[in-house]
Design brief:
334 residues, mainly alpha, Dna Ligase, domain 1, two-stranded antiparallel sheet, 11 helices, 45% helix
Length: 334
């Protein structure tokens, strides 16, 4: 009996030692630097469970022991909380670090920011030049005014078309939210007409505080049956949105008086009312400004040399402002 008891005790002790040793070894493996020699980006698709994630990490040589990774995830009770997305895994990252990142959802943030007032053609050029997106180059140009300029997040496996789809959905959402709350009595019958005017306001001023005032000028002109006489509409008539980007303006030169005679329904010097479509993709704020324009009596405005505009109620006031602007421009002020 004593011999048997000693044998059992010794065997149990050896098992405990072996177990502790194995646990210490596994903990060491879990925390030690991983096999990556350089930074690696990995995309975890939605719906993947712990086993599939561990297998993918092992297949892409991000971890050295998928079993330890899975056991650790279960012991830490995060095995059902690993987030999908793209992760930036640094060289030598340990399994402990990788598991913590996935449990926290610290995904790698790829993003593209589209400024307000870009034409659809310009947006397509940006997407085609983005080397972190997948798929063939875009050839179709979306309808002008159908894309909402904002910051969009993506993964390296996302297709270029997916960004276009996001921008279109975002514009539809903005339209649906803003149109029902518009001011009453506007000379705008549809959200499409509001988008057209918003695109003109977007191109006319880069000063956020001026949007409502500029929108008010155009609303006053529409109410009086006056032509809008907007330079950006003449530029769009000449370029169809395929603008120059060499630092010399959309035409590659200054807009000339003869340009204002171009025979196009987009040219609001030649044709009264709104043009047949937007001349760019306006931002949410410009659309809101058109739907809630500033109430005033101004019907003219011209650049003032500071980035903003000088507004006038009468033609005489406007001509004085134009003279001042020409004097500033002659002195070399942009």
């Amino acid at each position: 009996m004593h011999v048997a008891l000693r044998f059992i005790i010794c065997s149990f002790t050896l098992l405990v030692i072996a177990g502790v040793g194995s646990a210490l070894w596994a903990l060491h493996e879990f925390r030690k630097p991983g096999p990556l020699a350089e930074v690696h980006y990995i995309v975890i698709e939605k719906g993947k469970g712990l086993n599939a994630i561990a297998e993918q990490l092992d297949r892409e040589t991000v971890i050295s022991n998928p079993l330890i990774f899975k056991v650790a995830a279960r012991l830490q009770q995060v095995h059902t909380k690993l987030h999908a997305g793209e992760y930036e895994i640094m060289a030598g990252a340990s399994m402990a670090f990788i598991l913590d990142q996935m449990a926290r959802g610290n995904v790698y943030d790829r993003k593209l920011t589209f400024r307000e007032g870009l034409t659809s053609w310009q947006i397509v050029q940006i997407l085609n030049k983005a080397d972190n997106l997948s798929g063939d180059a875009l050839t179709a140009i979306p309808a002008e005014g159908s894309l909402l300029p904002e910051t969009y997040h993506f993964m390296k496996t996302d297709m270029r078309q997916s960004i276009i789809d996001q921008m279109e959905k975002a514009m539809i959402k903005a339209r649906d939210e803003l149109w029902p709350a518009r001011d009453q009595g506007l000379p705008l019958n549809t959200i499409e007409e509001a988008l057209i005017l918003a695109s003109i306001v977007e191109k006319e001023t880069g000063v956020a505080d001026e949007r409502g005032k500029v929108a008010g000028v155009f609303i006053n002109r529409l109410r009086r049956g006056m032509p809008l006489q907007s330079d950006p509409t003449a530029i769009y008539a000449l370029t169809n949105g395929e603008v120059r980007e060499d630092g010399m303006g959309p035409l590659g030169r200054r807009l000339l008086r003869k340009d204002l005679e171009v025979d196009s329904p987009y040219n609001t010097y030649k044709y009264s009312g709104l043009p047949p479509g937007p001349i760019c993709n306006p931002g949410r704020e410009s659309l809101a400004a058109v739907l809630h324009p500033e109430a005033h009596e101004y019907i003219y405005f011209v650049a003032d040399g500071t980035g903003g505009h000088a507004f006038a109620r009468t033609l005489a006031e406007h001509e004085a402002n134009v003279t001042q602007w020409r004097r500033i421009r002659a002195q070399g002020t942009p």
